[in-house]
Amino acid sequence: MYADSHYGTVLVDVESRRPVDLLPDREASSLAAWLTKRPGVEVICRDRAPFFAEGATAGAPQAVQVADRWHLWHNLSEAAERCVADHRGCLQVLAPDPAQPAPEPEKFEDPSGSPWPRGHRFADRTRVKHATVHELLAAGLSRRAIGRQLRMTSRTVKLFADAATPEDLFHGQWQGRPSKLDAFKPYLDDRWNQGCTNAWTVWEEIVPLGYQGSYQRVRAYFREKRLSPGRVTARPPSPRVVAGWILRRPETLTEAEHLRLKAVLVHCPELDALTGHVRSFGQMLTERQGERLPEWLDAVRRDNLPGLHTLAAGIDRDRDAVIAGLTLPWSSGVVEGHVNRIKILKRQMFGRAGFALLRKRVLLYS
After folding, report:
1. Rounded distance, CA 264 to CA 249, Å?
2. What's the pLDDT tens digit per position in 97-128?
3. Number of neighbours of residue 234 by Cβ within 10 angstroms
């Protein structure tokens, strides 16, 4: 039995989904000889390996060759990740030196257990009013007199008078209310760690990304960072993660992923161009628009993306088969299932049989 490092060629009838033969190697001459004996072959689905292309051309020149769509997308995915890796500098953020760890931030605990910190405008105003009302009550004034003196309604005076502590008043709409800034905080953290501490500059950056809140919210968030003894640091996304964002459909991204991808693309024109090419190719593939391939190749060559240029050159050498793969309904996906089954058979028979028995087991499979 052949070891796993020895490769062969499995031929499958795409219509019946059954294997028709198994060749002992991956030589173009072997495939060409097999096809020459069967002149009725009309369509050949294959990946873009050169020996398959050469063998199919020599053995069945009359057949239409169709490049497999899954392999095309897989090749594009690998090229996209290489392009992102080439621009990994655009993904970096300022991080503390591990040799000098950042000091642990001091924890300031409010003895009252209040969820609102000192210095918060609403909290401080409420505490002052609560203290004033209770001082006047202790001095013997009636609630009506306190309302006249402090210009409060009777309902407001009753609210403050009945609260034992000001923290009893911190509830309802003032507590835990979501902010329009919440979705943009990962981006603000990244920009802060990159050294951009100007709230106005960052506000101008997030408005085109979809932020509809006020500049004051951004300024307040940066003010909290300045007053904090520790600094927030964000680990830059890896090239594989960013490539995954680019390769996925935009509607499948979470809001945070969408914002972080936008931030990357704003600061890296090359990756912005890469995203456009990937999504254009995905549209060609899913909507079977193979006639657009020459236009796509020309657009790729105009941008400074060496990783994508290599893929474009390989596609250009096999242009007719790729166009057919992006246009015709045929695909070699059924072959992959047989390949996995053959690998299992090889492991079961390792060291105990040869190619002849393997071929019989593959062809007699039902």
Report:
1. 17
2. 344 444 444 444 444 445 555 556 667 788 88
3. 18
Q: Are strands 43-46 and 64-67 parallel, antiparallel or unpaired?
A: parallel
pTM for the structure as a whole = 0.60
**pLDDT at residue 247 is higher than 70:** yes
| CA–centroid distance for 233 within its chain | 20
Spatial CA neighbour of 68 closest among 285, 284, 282: 285
Cα torsion through 25, 31, 36, 37, rounded to 10: 50
Span 49-60, average pLDDT: 89
